[in-house]
Amino acid sequence: MSAVPDENPAGNNQPVLLDCCGGLNNVDYSKMDLTPMEGFLKHIDFGDASFCIAVIAIIFNPFFWNVVARWEHRTRTLSRLFGGPYLACYCLGFIIILLNVYRSHSMTVAMKAQARWEVMDRTDVFYAGVALMVLGTVLVVGSFLALGFIGTFLGDYFGILMDEKVTGFPFNIIENPMYWGSTANYLGLALIGASPVGLVLTAIVAVSYKVAIRFEGPFTEQIYQERSQRRKHE
């Protein structure tokens, strides 16, 4: 884009710029009202220990289960250690549950440690948070019931494959309902608590899940493709 000063029809001292299409750019960004954002950020202490611990817990969880599950898929070490893939998968699933409980606890501690925001401290925001938590719980529970414990906690990586892809509720309305249901729960909790830091932590949860999906999706498809190829050769 070329910025060429032109005559200012408003008669003030701010230059009017020509954009690349020859039009006038009359937007004076210095006059934008940043008060809401400033009010939001002043309620967040990014250096607070509880906030840092929560961030670490959020990022660590999907990293941990992806690394361990891929290692198991390559080596079958856990299956040998526990005497079979089912017990190994149950043990990893139990560890993942504990890690998720700690993540939720650390996020709650961080939200309670930092200030509420009066802009969010309203009845309609509270009930929106309740609605999100109900929705999130439905998605999480529905996903667990559809997949079962083994399917939920990476049984594919242990060689315990499903006969066919799950397409029923809630997978027929959204992909990865367990992840996005969990994210909705955290967002609802942040709204109920009128917590700006809760919104930031929820955004980090969403990003960490998005990254995890980028790794898990193709790898899971590869596992089932390998099974299909084996069956063709049998």
Brief digest:
This protein has helices at 35-41, 49-75, 77-81, 85-113, 123-152, 177-192, 196-233; strands spanning 5-6, 16-18, 24-25. With 234 residues, it is mainly alpha-helical.
Task: Report the strand count.
Answer: 3
Stretches where pLDDT is under 50 for at least 5 consecutive residues are 1-24
| Quaternary structure classification | single chain
The ordered H/E elements are EEEHHHHHHH
- Give the N-terminus to C-terminus distance in angstroms: 61 Å
Main sheet: strands, sense, barrel? 3 strands, antiparallel
Would you mind describing this structure in some detail?
The protein has 234 residues and is mainly alpha-helical. It is built from 7 helices and 3 strands; from the N terminus they run βββααααααα. It has a 3-stranded antiparallel beta sheet with strand order 1-2-3, with no helix packed on it. α2 packs parallel to α7 and α5 runs antiparallel to α6. It is elongated and about 65 Å long. Keywords: Endoplasmic reticulum, Lipid biosynthesis, Lipid metabolism, Membrane, Methyltransferase, Mitochondrion, Phospholipid biosynthesis, Phospholipid metabolism, S-adenosyl-L-methionine, Transferase, Transmembrane, Transmembrane helix. Pathway: Lipid metabolism; Phospholipid metabolism; phosphatidylcholine biosynthesis. It is a multi-pass membrane protein.
How would you summarize the topology of this molecule?
Blueprint: E1 5-6, E2 16-18, E3 24-25, H1 35-41, H2 49-75, H3 77-81, H4 85-113, H5 123-152, H6 177-192, H7 196-233
Antiparallel strand pairs: 1-2, 2-3
Helix pairs in contact: 2-4, 2-7, 4-7, 5-6, 6-7
